[in-house]
């Protein structure tokens, strides 16, 4: 099965999503609920376009040997520096063939089998985090539960589930503070001070990843609070109009943290070439969310395998055509 065939299959069962050949944010625009945004949807488009504005520096005067795409993180080894991003409320946004429980039951083991790991989503129903953590436990801890920015008491309950799962890391998507369904939810969820974030991070027995960093100031606060990694992310362009694309702010954030924490990035990354560009701009790895939704809806575990192998093959080819023998060799000289 090819990825085009996976998309054709996903069209038969998904709603809201147009299953475009390239997920660039244009067709879904600001459709909400759905894969669009609460605003105009222009930031999702900008995320994609920004990667296309980065050019590759081809150099084939180099050793003719296969590139090594192996990625090491927090004691784990992965085949590629690619993670499936966290997605929640899939039945509302993408079609009721799957709910969050069924989605994660496919995504987590599918990603592990493909040589990568999945970030799992969180939601208003306790069952979402409970079952995601059970699935991660069944996969030997290969998965990253992502907790919404709840109040401390709710966070502690969810962190207990993470501990029981044996997950190798935990994340919090602080950019979810802008989601409409969280704004008026009880218990409260939303923005966090540096001190509040530090209190939460200090309770975690595993490396803590802060997702939703878009400024140097935010990156420094996350680092000072004890984050082991940050994800440069504007929540797929869904939560605030007028912000930059992730590719636009990534280099300055990478420079500011100066290798003291791992830096990941998401938003509009749709090919292995885009992955290469992100690494060349200084990211350690990337998160890709929406295409993995299509993969799961279209062909379940096989869809995940097809998409991951496609991204990995594109990344490897780009590395070989630019003279990068491994991930550490990718640098700013390889883009224009």
Automatic annotation (TrEMBL):
Q: Where does FMN bind?
A: 211, 233, 266-270
Tell me where in this chain the FMN hydroxy acid dehydrogenase domain is found: 36-336
Catalytic residues, chain numbering: 235 (proton acceptor)
Q: Which UniProt keywords apply?
A: Flavoprotein, FMN, Oxidoreductase
Provide the binding site for glyoxylate. Answer: 235, 238
Can you state which reaction this protein catalyses?
Answer: (S)-lactate + O2 = pyruvate + H2O2
- Enumerate the GO terms in the molecular function aspect: FMN binding; oxidoreductase activity
Q: Which CDD domains does the record associate with it? A: alpha_hydroxyacid_oxid_FMN
Is the Ribonucleoprotein keyword given for this protein?
no
UniProt keyword annotation of Oxidoreductase present = yes
Q: Which cofactor does it need?
A: FMN
Annotated Pfam families: FMN_dh
- Protein family: Belongs to the FMN-dependent alpha-hydroxy acid dehydrogenase family.
Q: What is this protein called?
A: L-lactate oxidase
């Amino acid at each position: 099965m090819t990825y085009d065939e996976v998309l054709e299959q996903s069209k038969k069962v998904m709603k809201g999503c147009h299953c475009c050949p390239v997920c660039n944010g244009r067709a879904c625009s600001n459709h909400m609920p759905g894969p669009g945004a609460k605003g105009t949807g222009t930031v999702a488009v900008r995320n994609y376009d920004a990667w296309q504005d980065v050019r590759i520096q081809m150099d084939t005067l180099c050793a003719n040997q296969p590139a090594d795409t192996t990625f090491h993180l927090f004691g784990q080894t992965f085949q590629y520096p690619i993670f499936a991003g966290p997605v929640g409320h899939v039945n509302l946004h993408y079609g009721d063939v799957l709910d969050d429980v069924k989605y994660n039951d496919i995504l987590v083991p599918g990603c592990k089998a493909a040589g990568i790991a999945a970030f799992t989503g969180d939601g208003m129903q306790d069952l979402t985090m409970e079952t995601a953590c059970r699935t991660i436990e069944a996969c030997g801890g290969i998965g990253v539960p992502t907790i919404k920015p709840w109040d401390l008491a709710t966070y502690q309950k969810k962190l207990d589930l993470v501990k029981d799962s044996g997950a190798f890391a935990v994340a919090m998507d602080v950019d979810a503070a802008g989601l409409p369904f969280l704004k008026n939810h009880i218990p409260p969820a939303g923005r966090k001070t540096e001190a509040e974030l530090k209190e939460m991070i200090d309770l975690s027995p595993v490396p803590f990843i802060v997702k939703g960093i878009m400024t140097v100031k935010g990156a420094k606060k996350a680092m000072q609070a004890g984050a082991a990694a940050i994800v440069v992310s504007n929540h797929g362009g869904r939560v605030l109009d007028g912000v930059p694309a992730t590719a636009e702010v990534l280099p300055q954030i990478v420079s500011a943290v100066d290798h003291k924490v791992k830096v990941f990035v998401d938003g509009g990354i749709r090919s292995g070439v885009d992955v290469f560009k992100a690494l060349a701009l200084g990211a350690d790895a990337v998160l890709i969310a929406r295409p993995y939704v299509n993969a799961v809806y279209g062909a379940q575990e096989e869809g995940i395998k097809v998409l991951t192998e496609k991204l990995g093959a594109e990344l490897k080819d780009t590395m070989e055509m630019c003279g990068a023998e491994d991930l550490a060799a990718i640098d700013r000289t390889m883009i224009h």
